Amino acid sequence: MTPLEKVQNLPIWRGAVRVAPLGGGITNVNFTAEDDAQKVVVRIGDDIPLHQILRFNELSASRAAHAAGVSPAVFHHEPGVLVIAFVEGRTLTAADFADDAVLDQALDLVARAHRDIPQHLRGPAMVFWVFHVLRDYAATLRDAGSGYAALLPDLLAQAARLEVAVGQIDLVFGHNDLLPANFLHDGRRLWLVDWDYAGFNAPLFDLGGLAANNGLTAAQEARMLTRYYDRAPDAELWRKYKAMKAAAALRETLWSMVSEIHSQIDFDYAAYTAGNLSTYRAAYAAFENA
């Protein structure tokens, strides 16, 4: 059965259902669907162990995120299918984060997720430790004979230095994939969607990912850290943050390298790899010079 047929045959529709592809997904195949009663988003995707994606975790995180007021409601689920409420609005782009007001809204939403989602989470919970993910991705790339294999020894050595610099961490419930398109604005407020990689993590990973994925300036990074921690960052916090920002950028890079080999989604992963590798190298240089 094709993804479109899966959507059309869901047992939730009231009357005729109208289905349209929803672009932008680079892990799932997504659709909007509207029947006589409601409009929803349908996400089609099975477990992807190569990317540490397990759909039971996405479901429980999505439900808890809705209960915490940061994400749309879950309407239906079945193996390989997640149906959530449609938010009338637009997805953000990296350019939106140049506006400090947007950055503040996004940061407050992320902080709310970190703080409140654990109060609503049910069942087994996962941990997302970026340095484990990096080592696992590197092994996957070596096993597949990736053309990037020659880069891996240096990248893993750098990752080891970053892990030491991060040191001991606080633990929150992270989104762990703060791409701009995972923020939706309905004209009044922001929503955070796509909980594929959700799990307990250091808050600095989400903060570093937010900065790396959205091109924040140094002044905005200082604003972000001050707002999140309610104090101006000292030298120790800056170093930990810069290490985690570099690790977040490296994770996105290796994610794309693995996706070049294994993903069936029509997306230019090679260009995405090149862009993220450039972002990582700049972030790592900033860490070394801190």
Automatic annotation (TrEMBL):
Record InterPro entries: Aminoglycoside_PTrfase (IPR002575), Kinase-like_dom_sf (IPR011009)
Lineage, uppermost ranks: Bacteria, Pseudomonadati, Pseudomonadota, Alphaproteobacteria, Rhodobacterales
Protein name: Phosphotransferase
Highest taxon of source: Bacteria
Species per Swiss-Prot/TrEMBL record: Cypionkella sinensis
Gene3D superfamilies: 3.90.1200.10, Phosphorylase Kinase, domain 1
Pfam families in alphabetical order: APH
Ranges in coiled-coil conformation: none
Domain Aminoglycoside phosphotransferase: 19-232
